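User: what does the whole thing look like in 3D?
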Amino acid sequence: MIFLNNLISGIGLGSIYAIIALGYTMVYGIAKMLNFAHGDVIMVGAYIAFCSLQYWGLPPVVAILLAMVVCTVMGVLIEGLAYRPLRQAASLAVLITAIGMSYLLQNLALLIWGANTKSFPRTFLNSSTIPLLGGRLSIPSATLFTIVANVVIMIALTLFTSRTKMGKAMRCVSEDRGAAELMGINVNRTISLTFAIGSGLAAIAGVLLCSSYPNLTPTTGSMPGIKAFTAAVFGGIGSIPGAMVGGVLLGVIEIFGKAYISTELGDAIVFAVLIIVLLLKPTGLLGKPMREKV
Amino acid sequence: MTRAKRNRLIYNIVTYAVVIAAFVILQSMIANKSISRTLKGQLVPICSWVIMAISLNLVIGFSGELSLGHAGFMSVGAYTGAIVSGYLLTARGVETEWLRLAVAIAAGGVAAGIAGVLIGIPVLRLRGDYLAIVTLAFGEIIRNLVNVIYVGVDGARMRFSFLNNDLPEGVTMLVDGAKGAVGIKRISTFTAGFVLVMITLVVVLNLVNSRAGRAIKATRDNRIAAESMGVPVTKYKMMAFVTAAVLAGMAGALYGLNSSTIVPAQFTFNQSINVLVFVVLGGLGNVLGSVISATLLTILPEVLRAFADYRMLAYAIVLILVMIFTNNPIVRSWADRIVAPAKRLLRGKRKAEGGDA
Amino acid sequence: MKKMFVMFLALILAMSCVGAFADEEPITITVAHIGPTSPGPAADASQYGQATLHGAEIAVEEINAAGGKYRIELIHEDDQHDTEKVVNAYNTALDNGAQIILGTTTSKPCEVAADLGYEERVFFLTPSASAPAVIEGRDNIFQICFDDYSQGRVSAEYIAEHKLGTKIAVIYNNSDVYSTGIRDSFIAEAANRGLEIVAESTFTTTVDFSVQVSEAQNAGADVVFLPMYYDAAAPILITADSKDYHPIFFGVDGMDGILTVEGFDTSLAEGVMLLTPFVATSEDEKVVSFVQKYEAAYGTTPIQFAADAYDGIYTIIAAAEEAGITADMDTEEVCEAMIAAMQKITVEGLTGTMTWDETGAVGKEPMAAVIENGVYVFND
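Assistant: Here's the predicted 3D structure for the full assembly of 1031 residues, as structure tokens:
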């Protein structure tokens, strides 16, 4: 029973990682950059939702939508102002700009909302736990919502990229940017759209993250961000189902490592497993094998 | 002497000259007390960060591998340095500060080098972002392990303990788990830092201009071509990686012995990222650039203290703007036109680096 | 003791009257507050640094408005809770003419800065750096807060004496000096008192506390000891509630503030016990006035850190009066005079009546409170 409860906690934590990892993996797949500021966009989304709920008394659904709108606009702005001028530059230059953006968002949040920890209020998302097997097991509702959101988003993204014209354009850009441009695809607009979707997802991830783990500070997004980035690589970066699998597995490993080995070494265990997996399967669990032309 | 060779020589001489000149100027400022306390207090950390930046540049700039766990090696060096120095003082009664410092720095380098070998063997099989994430993972693992290590001195014996502190009462603690390395005697000096920076420069500049260095750069530019020419790729990558780890360990020891206490939380992923920022801003493969950017970016947040609450915000904006200004082709060509004469000088230098790439 | 204190008060009163009548030029002391007001590379402790800064600002405003013998010019330097940056903050403060340091807010940076100050003879009064290592072997630094060891010991004593439970679980942050320090002394004292520790688990940067809470629950612990700050305790209370686990949660002074976390459902904190010297909801006249001013100025309810820093400023004034600090003294003379004066004064602050010995540790009594209906109730 303890085992099953831990498994549920692990899946709950993992599905949070997964939903953040989806954002990382999408942007990486298409824009070929590690968007280090992704975790901080999540934090902003969570703050917007917090303000809507706590200060403005908006209903939770409106709060989520508002957070999505703000984050989407912000994502497009960040891409346009900071990343687009560096489209031709070395990938490391873009990486450093993303790091600068991450600092910028954290410090802006610090100025706007202050340093004090805020506790994300209870909404329909996290107000109850669902008992199973006569109460011996319990699933927090936030976990259920996160899993459902994950599955819905994953299916929607997969359909979007395989069925719609914009989605196909994204895959083209991801495959070969130059060729895509020659085929008449507006690369800049496609990448902007990717950022818009990624940031919208970040807002949802922020709300779900804080529904499960309610502490909200300007650095809330960074540690889950790093773990989710790890999860994305774990599953094979650029792969949408990979992000999902990687995230959930990482969460389960983290909880099991803490529960059955040692809470002191929880993080070390997660990273050790990651290293072993990457050594056995160097492109992640579901990543495409790298082929090199000579 | 070929043109490329001459340019390289000039570049190396300029690099050494800049560092020596900076040292002489700062020393004379200290001598006639015209230096601010803040800057004086920053001299040793600056030396440490400069070494960190140069050594990471060896991995990223010359070897072409993105490493995100460099701070892990620094922490290995810092802890080893603190333990060795503390042991020499308490158990062996070595009072001579420079001797303790030298031994501690050497030990820090060796320990980090060993860590580098252990990590390098699995890591260097991977490539690109996967390598980056694994180095990140190792950095975090090192931090996690250091958090549960206890080291004490009992008479002349050193005693270790892992996970739980079961060292007996009365042991002089050197490393106390989450409380970090404690009771460190501050023995690092600016002169020692300068010597270490010079050693780093000699090692790195000679390495990159040697046969091994050319092999490392060939591997970076085209691994497959290099391999088919019979270059043992893994061996040379390992050489660069371990050298960088040793230097980072020495920098760590210098850094650690400049503070009365160090904690594992100091050497996080964020610190690795900071060093990465130094390297990229200074230019990949540009050693002098690393020296200058590490120095300026360490001082910058202190200069920005006048902005009070907006300080770190200003730092972030400066960082983004600098990256855009130095990397955007339009801005660059516009800037080039304005500083055309200066550019001509630079072009010679850039060719010097490009010549053997 | 009491007599001496009354005499001392009378003396202060007399002195301040003399000061007022003599109409002397007031002496300005430059005090530098050092604490984290932005996140650093190691961790984000800015909420504590901002609290101490704001608390100090309120006190300085009061003192300068009251027009006594001393005026305070407060400068602030950010150390980002980092042992490298704190050196810069300390040096910049001295470059800017600081004579006395109020700080630093957090323990590890404080150890580093106080060590520099020990060699250069600069007087430190830390509001909230509670690790014993901060004052160990240094005569130039005094604490306003209790040190971690005594908190752990007193907590174990209290639990045993009031028979709150026999099976104890401990959850602590093993990368934090404060948390591990209290935990160590708690475990040691619990053994002496025959308390059984049935579960012990740690956390660092994690967001998920389900494993730690489950461990305590499965071990059947009836008291869960939480030596940590309130921001980490809040999710633990929420997690425990979601698992329908309701033991007695016992916190230390860092727990104060749990009721003021925005958005936190305070009903979850019902029955939580804590040792604290400061209570924002207290009806004490001084506390009420402080809380009102603080809320008006900064829009949030002060936590214990703010109260500690407020007391810190008043302690500096009291010690300066005792020492007879004059405008022409340099930092070294100020330091020696303040060290001597600190051991003679008694200060009635928001956080209790404080005296100091030569070690720099404060003598004041923690009070155990229980949260009932959203407010602290004291039951001695």
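In plain terms: The longest strand of chain C covers residues 27-35. Chain C has a mean pLDDT of 86.
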